[in-house]
UniProtKB/TrEMBL annotation:
Pathway: Cofactor biosynthesis; 7,8-dihydroneopterin triphosphate biosynthesis; 7,8-dihydroneopterin triphosphate from GTP: step 1/1. It comes from the Bacteria. Keywords: GTP-binding, Hydrolase, Metal-binding, Nucleotide-binding, One-carbon metabolism, Zinc. The gene is folE. Residues 1-23 are annotated as: Disordered. This is GTP cyclohydrolase 1. Its EC number is 3.5.4.16. PROSITE patterns: GTP_CYCLOHYDROL_1_1. Transmembrane segments: none annotated.
């Protein structure tokens, strides 16, 4: 079953967000809730550091994949075979527990007269990774953004990741990997293209 994809609006007006002070105060509350003293020497600068870190870790909310994918190239000398960028490293955060998801993405498409700059594909993975996520949603978001912007003959995305919410808490099973895939166009309708995608990833 295809994942349900939700487009979260960018925050275009920074004033709609809590202030830096409010964010730092929230960190102080969490430190107290955890049982520590935010006024002790080692934690005095922690609220500011955490707020700054979160701004970087969740910078994907300020970016739109459509902006990154806007420029394409038509001078491809008739090339129409698969374009695959594999082993794109990323980290994200689980939207349920706000702990890291660490993995790699493999993204392919079948050109339909236009191609993307290869770095743009990695950048799209980065944009969606730097948001609170589920792996299923992130996989579908990457595929849909490329499909809608480039209009290729098909898109294939596979994500392999370890979820720290499983490794650090709860069942505490380190090293387990979750695989998710999304296929569109020819990758969805032609099994041979799926097989070729999987074979190229593993080669």
């Amino acid at each position: 079953m295809d994942a349900i994809v939700t487009n979260f609006p960018r925050v275009d007006d920074p004033s709609g967000r809590p202030s830096q002070k409010e964010a730092e105060d929230a960190v102080r509350v969490l430190l107290r809730w955890a049982g520590d003293d935010p006024e002790r020497e080692g934690l005095l600068d922690t609220p500011a550091r955490v707020a700054k870190s979160y701004r970087e870790l969740f910078s994907g909310y300020d970016l739109a994949a459509e902006d990154v994918l806007g420029r394409t190239f038509e001078e491809v000398a008739g090339y129409d075979d698969m374009v695959l960028v594999k082993d794109i490293p990323f980290f994200s955060h689980c939207e349920h527990h706000m702990v890291p998801i660490i993995g790699k993405a493999h993204v392919a498409y079948l050109p339909n007269g236009r191609v993307l700059g290869l770095s743009k594909i990695a950048r799209v993975v980065e944009i969606f990774g730097r948001r609170l996520q589920t792996q299923e949603t992130m996989t579908a978001q990457i595929a849909r953004s490329i499909d809608e912007t480039l209009n290729p003959r098909g898109v294939a995305v596979m994500i392999e990741a370890e979820h720290m919410c499983m490794a650090m808490r709860g069942i505490q099973k380190q090293g387990s990997t979750t695989l998710t895939t999304t296929f569109t166009g020819a990758f969805k309708t032609e099994p041979t293209e799926q097989v070729r995608f999987m074979t190229m990833i593993r080669s």
